[in-house]
Specification:
The chain is α+β, with helices and mostly antiparallel strands. The chain folds into three domains: 69 residues, RNA-binding S4 domain (Structural Genomics Hypothetical 15.5 Kd Protein In mrcA-pckA Intergenic Region, Chain A); 90 residues, Pseudouridine synthase (2-Layer Sandwich); 139 residues, Pseudouridine synthase (2-Layer Sandwich), CATH 3.30.2350. 24% of the residues lie in helices and 30% in strands. It has nine helices and 14 strands. The strands form two sheets. Strands 4, 5, 6, 7, 8, 9, 10, 11, 12, 13 and 14 form an eleven-stranded mixed β-sheet that branches. Strands 1-3-2 form a three-stranded antiparallel β-sheet. Strand 11 and strand 12 form a beta hairpin. The longest helix has 12 residues. It starts with a strand and ends with a helix.
Length: 319
Amino acid sequence: MEYTIKETEKEQRFDRFCRKYFKPYTEVKLWDIFAYIRKWIIKVNGKKAKENYKLILWDVIYINDKIIDTLSMPKESKVNKLSSRKIRKIILQEDRNYVIFNKPAGLVVHPGNKHRDDVTLNDYLQQWVEINNVDTSETFNPALCFRLDKDTSGIIIWGKTYDSVKHLNELIRERKTKKKYIAIVSGTIKTQSVTVSLLRGFDKRFGKAKMYVDPKWDMTQTDFKLIETTTHPVLGEISFVEATLHSGKMHQIRVHLAHLKAPIIGDLMYWNPVINRLSTKKLWITRQLLHSRQYGFDYKKKKYDITCPLPTIFKELFE
């Protein structure tokens, strides 16, 4: 069998291409793939290639037919039938490189053990690809470049090509993107910057990962700007805060605000239990009030500077 490398697949390592190609076939293990490459069962342009060879456009991958004949049919991935109107409703911007969405709070990004039957943002992506005939291949689908927590709303970005995903991921690793979030917190903040070390641990109560302040681990920094403070008739003193990330640890803004004694309203893990009960029972707030507001980066001489509208509840609390 022969497979020709497309625009969306070029510049990736030969072994990574093979891992993606065989991913649907659960009986093929990683050591099998390296054995196929080493024994010339999989070749590039009719010749043996090293694992780290960088594929170029129109390279031809040859896979021995005897391997293909032994593989079972891959299982179909779950695609929830979402209307194009519903998907378009959350699109902020789209071009040939990226689709930028305003993720609603309560929508899980990827399926997991606790959300196998839920509609996820990944289902939105698969359906959007199908509706619009977006260019895909056996080893590349448009992919999310980063994640947001289930109850965090706002900007999230899908790369439509291998190169655009790779580029933004590199910028994120090198901390060359500009990210600003908006949070509504209980109380107020008295500092403009927080730099503390965070350790990833486990919370038995929730059965999932949780971050802790620990001086022995990686330093993290968030800058805060106090926009407004008011006295709410139900919640008491609350503040409208802008957060700018200089690092990107899990739950970073949530932990930093809790560390400042100003936890995000609705945050069940880094919480103020009294305020959370009041916000749920009296105001029907069922999410943490954290929103990905702005995102900026450069790609191929184009500047992306995206701003996302605030959810209605953020405005109503300060009316």
